[in-house]
Amino acid sequence: MGETADQFFVILQHRIVDHAPANLRSFFSSLLSVIAILVVFALLFAITTVLERKGLGRIQNRYGPNRVGPFGILQPIADGIKSLTKEDIVPQAADKVVHFLAPVMLVLAAFSLYAVLPFGRNMVLANLDAGVLFFFAVSSVMELTIFMAGWSSRNKYSLLGAMRAIAQMISYEVPLILASITVIMAAGSLSTVAIVEKQAGYTGIFPHWFVFTPWGFAGFVLFMIAATAESNRSPFDLPEGESEIIAGYYTEYSGFKFALFFLGEYLGMFAISGLGITLFWGGWSAPFSFLTWVPSYFWFFAKLLTMIAIFIWVRGTLPRLRMDQLMNFAWKFMLPMALLNLVTAGVWRFLPQGVLRWLVCGLLVVVPYVLLGRGLAQGWKLEKRVYRFAE
Amino acid sequence: MLFTIFAILTVAGAVAAMSLRNLIHSVLALTLAFAGLAAVYLQLGAQFIGLAQILVYVGAVAILIVFAILLTRDAGASPQSIVSSSWIESGTVALVIFCVLAWAIHHSAASRPAVLPQPEASMQQIGNVLMLRFALPLEIVGVLLTVALIGAVTLAMHEKQEKQ
Contacts of residue B13 in chain A, CB cutoff 8 Å? Predict the structure, then answer.
């Protein structure tokens, strides 16, 4: 029973594909997976927009959307109709072709990210030998599309937003990849499926997830901070800071193209959360050994929704960083910590199992963290800020 | 079939990169050529090279060029003609070099239609070779790049101090 529920979608796919002619079967099975990914994550996007607005509303002591449908859950449909019926305005000076291509390519790249994420047992579109590399390669294409959007609009705010976005994404890509390398070192593979399998065992009732090791925990925190910056979300939302540069690179987008940017951004956030889950939280594996009867895809999406909740929580809690703070944080704190974490992962690998390993690696994580934090905070002058032009 | 599409994409991107008037358009066309080349690598089964090509060329080099253009000069269309005045001479030189290279490749031993076994280079093998046999070259390249980075930072820092 549990087995059937676990493999339900895989069996369903096989059943459907069996009706196709023999030479088209692999094509149809890929097509089905692609359609499933498109539908599920587009729906998840719709649900997340309303959940986010509700959550932010609660954090800011207001109700959030509550007019369309019961408790406002039909809000995404209203938003969708609104953005479809709005006029699509392209500025006269804009570079029409690039202006059109940018949102399309962003969504295309964002959806391709899901090709290598394992959503459940045997549920991955492409089990690539270099899955993690594929993920980072495609996500680097997203930076270029943001530049295309900002530049083609011929608007100084758009261009400023794009420059900020690229500077930020390049800076945070380094700690992001360095934090993932620790897992690749431990698992000995770049394939996402193999990485999940490496974390499959249990000690007692507790799983062997990488996040439950000193380097894994530090790596996960670094990964999530960098992932927040990569997906341009608060507190790293300088590229689209409404109060400073209107909406950054998508100032000049309206109607459905704006919705596409929104979609691309959220899809990127889900995908990078999915990668974080795959790398550090054991992918689709259950959190306790006595819960393995629950279908694997349930765990993946439960973890994904938890990640999304944390993203919303962080967005409602933290103020936006300043540009110099952003860069200092990336290069003076994140980068050294990620490099040291790499060493920690190596030490962990070669020390024998036991208390000593935990002690040494724990110290290797905590001591640099405290020292670096103290050292960087030394130059701070915490006093009332004096403004030159605004009082 | 797939190869034809990728080849056309690559060549069209490269031609567009040379012939478009707007510099940013040229960079985007160049990116297309890089991506087409990566697709060819992937089609040949060289996953690592193909993905590294996208990561490095599309993700880093293209953005670097874009930054350089935006920070140094006006990115508008250049007024002068894109075709150089000495296009006949340079075209002849290019054609002659192409003919010589094509002749050399055609007559070399490597182009004999020998059926070679499909080389299987898994990520594991590439990693092992890089970390064991070629560890020293890899480290030297790493040190070289770090030195270049520190050098660039030092140059930038120096300028700032003089201004103050």
Answer: none
CB contact under 8 A, A166 and B31: no
Q: Residues 85..144 of B with a Cβ closer than 8 Å to A: which?
A: 122-124
Say how many domains are in chain B.
Answer: 2
SS3 track for B56-91? HHHHHHHHHHHHHHHHHCCCCCCCCCCCCCCHHHHH
Task: Print the domain residue range for B137.
Answer: 121-164
What distance in Å separates residue A51's CA from the closest CA in chain B? 33
- In the A/B pair of chains, how many CB contacts fall below 8 A? 64
In a shared domain, residues B2 and B72: yes
Q: Is the domain of B63 the same as that of B130?
A: no
From A193's Cα to the closest Cα of chain B, the distance in A is 14
**Is this prediction's pTM over 0.80?**
yes
Q: Could you tell me which chain B residue has the CA closest to the CA of A146? A: B63
pLDDT attached to residue B93: 93
Residue B143 has pLDDT above 90, yes or no: yes
Q: What is the reported pLDDT for A125?
A: 82
| Exposed/middle/buried for residue A301 (C-beta within 10 Å: 0-12, 13-18, 19+) | middle
Whether residues B6 and B64 share a domain: the answer is yes
| Domain parsing of chain A, residue ranges | 89-374
Q: What percent of chain A has pLDDT over 90?
A: 11
Q: What are the residues whose beta carbons fall under 8 Å from the beta carbon of A134, sequence distance 6 or more?
A: A115, A116, A126, A128, B51
* DSSP annotation string for A251-286: TT--HHHHHHHHHHHHHHHHHHHHHHHHHHS-TT--
On whether the CB atoms of residues A130 and A214 are closer than 8 A, the answer is no
CATH no. for residue B26?
1.20.120.1200
Please judge whether B59 and A141 are an interchain contact, meaning their C-beta atoms are less than 8 angstroms apart.
yes
- Mean pLDDT for B123-148 is 89
- Asked if A166 lies within 8 A of B67 by C-beta distance, the reply is yes
Averaged over A166-190, what is the pLDDT?
88
Q: Is B95 contained in some domain? A: no
**Position B159 in a domain:** yes
Chain B residues near residue A109 by CB distance under 8 angstroms: none
Q: How does residue A1 score in pLDDT terms, banded at 50, 70 and 90?
A: low
Cβ atoms A96, A156 nearer than 8 A: no
Report the chain B residue with the minimal C-alpha distance to residue A185: B127
Residue B108 lies in a domain: no
Judge if B2 and B69 occupy the same domain. Answer: yes
pLDDT, average across residues B38-52 = 86
For A306-359, the pLDDT digits (tens) are 999 999 998 888 888 888 888 888 888 889 999 999 998 888 888 888 888 888
Residue of A nearest to B75 (CA): A151
Query: Is residue B130 situated within a structural domain?
Result: yes
